From TrEMBL:
This is Gas vesicle synthesis GvpLGvpF. The keyword Flavoprotein does not apply. Keywords: Gas vesicle. GO terms for biological process: gas vesicle organization. Its main location: other. The keyword Zinc does not apply. Belongs to the gas vesicle GvpF/GvpL family. Pfam families: GvpL_GvpF (PF06386). It comes from Haloterrigena turkmenica (strain ATCC 51198 / DSM 5511 / JCM 9101 / NCIMB 13204 / VKM B-1734 / 4k). It is found in: Gas vesicle.
Length: 207
């Protein structure tokens, strides 16, 4: 028996395409409830193991959706959401429909970008001044931003930004200006990603 592995939920037109998907699947398609479309593939378990390869495939499918038709909006699910069948999945979509609609409105036409700033081993950095300079450059362009963990003592800033696709060029230029100004720091600018950091939709236990 095959189950439904969920990558994310959108309210765009249904999709179907061939790709390397989670759990060895080779096709991605949509399961619909009203105007919501869950992007899924078939899988033989409701408890998939998160290997590096499958985590990458999960992200690649989301990126493929985001890049289709000039840019689509999808509420991403964390790795591992799998349901017994279409009915179980549609029941969840029905119950979480208001939350999904709100999340889609919040991220419509936007993507997540990440910035990490790393100091050299013995460098002294005025963290408050740096954070203020970064905020001055980026916060007026981004729709939202959130801080992430400083998981290393050399990591002086780690933030995710939700940016309109139309503002991407301006955001790129602002990052470049910061790099020029702080050429003694290492800037790690990543993305675009599905906006994981800016949605918080709980779709219940796997069924």
């Amino acid at each position: 028996m095959t189950h439904r592995y969920v990558y994310g939920v959108m309210n765009d037109d249904p999709v179907e395409f061939e790709t390397d998907a989670v759990g060895g699947a080779d096709r991605v398609y949509t399961v619909s409830h009203r105007r919501l479309n869950a992007v899924v593939s078939d899988i033989d378990t409701t408890d998939p193991e998160e290997t590096d390869e499958d985590a990458q495939r999960h992200d690649d499918v989301l990126r493929e959706i985001m890049n289709r038709d000039g840019g689509r909006t999808i509420v991403p699910m964390q790795f591992g959401m799998a349901f017994e069948n279409d009915r179980a999945l549609k029941n969840v979509l029905r119950g979480a429909r208001p939350a999904f609609r709100r999340a889609i409105n919040d991220i419509e036409g936007r993507e997540e970008l990440g910035l990490k700033i790393v100091r050299e081993e013995d460098a002294e950095v005025d963290t408050d001044a740096l954070e203020e300079a970064v905020a001055d450059e980026l916060e007026s362009i981004a729709a939202q931003s959130v801080p992430n963990d400083l998981f290393s003592d050399r990591l002086v800033l780690n933030r995710s930004y939700l940016v309109d696709r139309d503002e991407r060029e301006a955001f790129d230029e602002a990052i470049a200006d910061l790099e020029d100004e702080y050429d003694d720091l290492m800037f790690r600018y990543t993305g675009p990603f599905a906006p994981y950091s800016f949605v918080d939709v709980k779709i219940g236990a796997q069924q």
